[in-house]
Design goal:
globular; TIM Barrel
Length: 434
């Protein structure tokens, strides 16, 4: 069940693998913020930068609402193959043109194969932005009845309802196409953007009919069994997605004699909080619906503030599923720096501390994780400040020496700005609600 090419290390010779989670669009924008990268071999250069840091396992971005590869799916909206939306900046237009020139996924797969790298295809599972921003796929924009609803009945135009079979079908079609193109595994990113399920009438009316209780009247109280029963009900739709994906994937695996693991990324704020998000992790493991588990310290619910990898590592040991600890190369984006500015997406020294990142990775190793899920590794492998730690991640002994080096501690003091470096950059400051 462990990833290929994993390194045996540590006292108990546990498997230790560093997974980069890379977005080529960010690589391009950070490489050349005015024009993107003009090299013509951007995917290859991004992967080579990972190799230089000892990262041979990379999760490659398939897209969110809009796909980032050349898809043959008739209803897909693809970056580079669409009419550029109004209001695009020069950099965005340059990046769009780079995606138009060739399929970056296929280019990445060719290069990964030549360099003996493992490349999974990643899809953000419920991140659709809002219509009119140019980041919502045409299929979803044309079906507003699929959009989720908040508890008060207002439409949530950033998410769609997994209780609708057509919504699940679209996600499965993308994964099956990526499998046919040649990815080594499938990555379902449930950290973009929880909750996966909410109060769409498909859920609310169904639960009302089943129980006689309108779930929109239930208080969202942690530990309340009534509320959790409602959460379990709507989480069934996401579990159905995984069951349907596995049902289609298994014959494909058998026919082509390929493993094609199903890898998921979830917040590490506890199984109950996961259930609120629509993620019934324990059922997924028990039914064999997932093969690998990645974690992210995403602060998204005020009511749940216990971010801890250890229960997930124990769950993984119980079911033979490798678990990769939480880490991130981008600073938290909604915190205000001392100079009064906020992180805007551009490279900046604010909020970054490689010592904090290294300590987080070493803690993952000591707790028994099989490695690290390094989100936005595209930035980590090129940004000098973060790269200082990233290049050490594959070697726990080197990490230990780095963390214990007094010169490193002196060079990288831990401050209020950088003490949380490595948590999910989308983390909120606890706005109450779901």
């Amino acid at each position: 069940m462990f990833a290929d090419n994993a390194v045996a290390t540590g006292k108990d010779s546990q498997e230790w693998t560093i997974w980069g989670i890379s977005e080529l669009g960010c690589w391009l924008g950070h490489s050349n913020p005015t024009f993107g990268s003009p090299s013509g071999s951007d995917a290859e250069e991004c992967l080579d930068a990972h190799l230089e840091c000892g990262i041979r396992h990379v999760v490659w971005d398939l897209g969110r609402s809009i796909l980032n590869y050349h898809s043959d799916l008739p209803q897909a909206t693809c970056k580079g193959l669409r009419e550029p939306p109004e209001g695009m900046s020069a950099t965005q237009r340059a990046v769009e043109n780079i995606y138009r020139q060739r399929c970056q996924l296929r280019a990445a797969l060719r290069h990964a194969g030549a360099k003996n790298m493992i490349l999974y295809g990643r899809l953000c599972m419920n991140r659709h932005y809002s219509p009119g921003q140019g980041r919502t796929g045409k299929l979803f924009a044309n079906h507003p009845q699929w959009f989720e609803q908040f508890q008060d009945g207002w439409m949530d135009t950033t998410r769609v309802c997994y209780g609708i079979p057509e919504v699940r079908r679209e996600r499965i079609d993308v994964f099956m196409e990526a499998a046919a193109i040649g990815v080594d595994g499938l990555h379902l990113d449930f950290c973009r953007q929880p909750p996966m399920v909410a109060y769409h009438p498909v859920f609310a009316n169904g639960y009302h009919q089943k129980t006689g209780c309108d779930p929109r009247t239930i208080e969202n109280e942690p530990g309340d069994e009534h509320f959790l029963d409602w959460c379990r009900y709507r989480a069934e739709a996401v579990t159905a997605l995984l069951r349907e994906l596995k049902t289609e994937l298994d014959p494909f695996r058998e026919r082509w004699i390929r493993r094609l693991p199903i890898q998921v990324r979830i917040p590490n704020d506890g199984f109950e909080a996961n259930l609120v998000a629509g993620l019934d992790i324990e059922t997924w493991c028990r039914e064999g619906l997932i093969d690998e588990l990645m974690l992210s310290e995403l602060h998204w619910l005020r009511e749940y503030q216990d971010w801890n990898d250890r229960p997930y590592i124990e769950l993984g040991h119980r079911y033979g599923i490798p678990v990769y600890g939480s880490s991130n190369c981008l600073p938290r984006q909604n915190i205000q720096w001392k100079d009064g500015k906020n992180w805007s997406g551009q490279l900046s020294p604010h909020g970054v501390n490689p010592l904090v990142l290294a300590r987080r990775a070493l803690k993952n190793h000591q707790e028994g994780a099989q490695g690290i899920a390094l989100y936005q590794s595209d930035t980590g492998v090129q940004w000098p400040d973060s790269r200082e730690a990233v290049i050490l991640l594959a070697d726990p002994e080197a990490l230990r020496n780095y963390v214990n080096d007094p010169e490193v501690r002196k060079r990288w003091p831990v401050t209020d700005e950088n003490k949380e470096y490595g948590i999910d950059n989308h983390s909120k400051l606890f706005k109450k609600g779901i």
